[in-house]
Design goal:
GO terms for molecular function: kinase activity. InterPro entries: Carboh/pur_kinase_PfkB_CS, PfkB_dom, Ribo/fructo_kinase, Ribokinase-like. Belongs to the carbohydrate kinase PfkB family. Residues 7-293 form the Carbohydrate kinase PfkB domain. There is one protein chain. With 309 residues, the protein is of the alpha/beta class. Helix content is 33%, strand content 24%. The strands form two sheets. A nine-stranded mixed beta sheet has the order 5-4-1-8-9-10-11-12-13, sandwiched between helices. A four-stranded mixed beta sheet has the order 3-2-6-7. β11 and β12 form a beta hairpin. α5 (150-159) runs parallel beside α6.
């Protein structure tokens, strides 16, 4: 079990993942897909669920809507460190369509996530002592009510003594200049910046990861870490001007939805146990591989082997 508590703040919704789908159906027709999985989703909730499977001392701070989907969501987060409020709104839902070339298409509804703002999260954290804890703020771009005050939330957490990680995800407006400036402010404050390779390239406006790392090296404060998740190519990290990496084992995977969130769980759990950067990267890659190899996803415990962190 991890020695430091881990607080996951952010989005939780209901996911329906199905496929594979070759071509978009003609209007007015019906298409039958061979596989589906109805499950809890949202980047923060995904990470919190994997932390449960790792036996970590963690909890989710989020919300669910006041409907059947929300009751399903809230029921999974009843631990002593979970703070999942039920609010009077429909639960946000995402349909993930999987394609044979490993690409994915997401269709998401507006819902309760639009109502989550700074005041909501601060009220949920009133009895959550984050001093000395690892705190991940995940899915910022999926919560429009928090965007303008995201920096203030990070500042409050830092002032309370938390070690802060962020994984904002992909902005709905692409990396427009104002969005880019906002994200760079978050990066300047965070202790751990977790993003995937496409997000890193877009934010850095770089043509390759070497150029992206050179850009972020100038943005990171001393002692901070940038972690870039590279899918089947593993992960790399930049800290103190030095880049390190961890490779992934080959996998035949049907469903990669939530791979980066599972990586976050493995990485943070390793950091909470006091592991150094490279073993933490290896743990993140190994945990992500275990999770995405499953379909449908399970809640069975995950135990890492020697050399996996």
């Amino acid at each position: 079990m991890s020695h430091r508590p881990i607080c996951i703040i952010g989005n939780a919704n209901l996911d329906l993942v199905c496929g594979p789908l070759d071509d978009w159906p003609e209007r007015g027709t019906e298409t039958f897909l061979p596989r589906s999985d109805l499950r809890i989703g949202g980047s923060a909730a995904n990470t919190a669920l994997v932390l449960q499977r790792l036996g970590a001392r963690g909890g989710l701070v989020s919300a669910a809507g006041a409907d059947a989907a929300g009751r399903m969501l809230a029921a999974r987060f009843q631990g002593t460190l979970d703070r999942v409020a039920v609010i009077e709104a429909p639960t946000s839902v995402t349909v993930g369509l999987l394609h044979p070339d490993a690409e994915r298409t997401f269709l998401s509804t507006d819902g309760h996530l639009d109502l989550l703002d700074l005041g909501f999260f601060l009220s949920q954290l009133e009895d959550w002592s984050v001093e000395g804890a690892l705190v991940l703020v995940s899915g910022a771009f999926a919560m429009p009510g928090l965007l303008k005050d995201h920096m203030e939330l990070l500042s409050v957490l830092k002032e309370a003594g938390a070690e802060v990680a962020i994984d904002p995800g992909w902005p709905g407006t692409d990396w427009a200049e104002d969005v880019r400036e906002q994200a760079l402010e978050w990066i300047a404050l965070a202790d751990h910046v977790l993003m995937n390779d496409k997000e890193a390239l877009g934010l850095a406006r770089a043509g390759d990861l070497d150029a992206a790392c050179a850009f972020f090296d100038a943005e990171l404060a001393a002692g901070r870490r940038l972690v870039i998740k590279c899918g089947k190519n593993g992960a790399l990290a930049l800290s103190g001007g030095t880049a390190v990496s961890a490779s992934a084992r080959p996998l035949t995977v049907f469903d990669t939805v939530g791979a980066g969130d599972a990586f976050n769980a493995g990485y943070l759990e390793a950091v909470a146990r006091g592991l150094a950067l490279v073993p933490a990267l290896k743990a993140g890659v190994a945990v992500a591989g275990r999770v995405i190899a499953e379909f449908p996803r399970t809640s069975l415990p995950i135990a890492l082997e020697a050399g996996e962190g």
